[in-house]
Amino acid sequence: MRALADFVYTLSWRLPGRTWRRLLAFAEAEAESALELRCAAALTTDAARAARYLEHAADEARHAQILLRRAELAKQAPSMLPRRGHAHLFARLGEAAFLAFVHLGERRGRRQFEAHVRFFEKRDPALANALRSILADERRHEAYTAELLTAVGEPRATRRARWLDRGMRWRRAGGALTEPLFALTMGLLYLLSAPLAALVRRGPAGWR
């Protein structure tokens, strides 16, 4: 299973045009996180936590620019981040569940960036170094959100955040798969309808 996972991971980066698209998607996610954290800083009643959220938001915005620049280099053409909104997670979830959601995301991000760094270490050292700088921040973010989550303390917050995280990832995956799945389905439909078209042409005159 490990060998299969490594093969799929390697293939996912080597597909034509895949590297810059993935880097651009990472940049979009970091920019969206920065928006969520700025909103959290505005809504929290604790000044110390607000400062931590703003510091985190600044890191995420910087990560977005690093990744955007690497996407431009991989594509060899200027890239732009689309104007995206955010999900207003702090207002929807409350602070405890929001912190749990951010912590889960940072933990997953840390694991992903560890894999990205390993993959590019020999293939593209410059990109690996850029990702390594982001990885250091991801580890720090994972640690401080765990600390604040313990301080805020709500037993069901992590469970709520985990379900929301799974739902959002499911919808994101569904959105990514919709277009290729539609193209595949319609292609198969056209192929399967070819015999029916031939049958209609050979049928009795006036047959519908």
List the main descriptive attributes of the protein structure presented here.
single chain; 208 residues; mainly alpha; Ferritin; 7 helices
Q: What does this molecule look like?
A:
The protein is an all-alpha fold. The protein has a single domain (2-166), classed as Ferritin (Up-down Bundle). The protein is built from 7 helices and no strands. The model has no long low-confidence stretch (mean pLDDT 83).
Counting DSSP E segments of at least 2 residues, the number of strands comes to 0
Query: Uncertain regions: pLDDT < 50 for 5+ in a row?
Result: none
Number of helices: 7
Query: Pairing-aware structural class of the strands and helices?
Result: mainly alpha
CATH architecture descriptor: Up-down Bundle
Describe the secondary-structure layout.
Blueprint: H1 2-14, H2 18-43, H3 47-75, H4 89-93, H5 95-123, H6 125-152, H7 157-202
In short:
The protein is mainly alpha-helical and about 210 residues long. It has seven helices and no strands. Helix 2 (about 20-45) packs antiparallel against helix 3 and helix 5 runs antiparallel to helix 6.
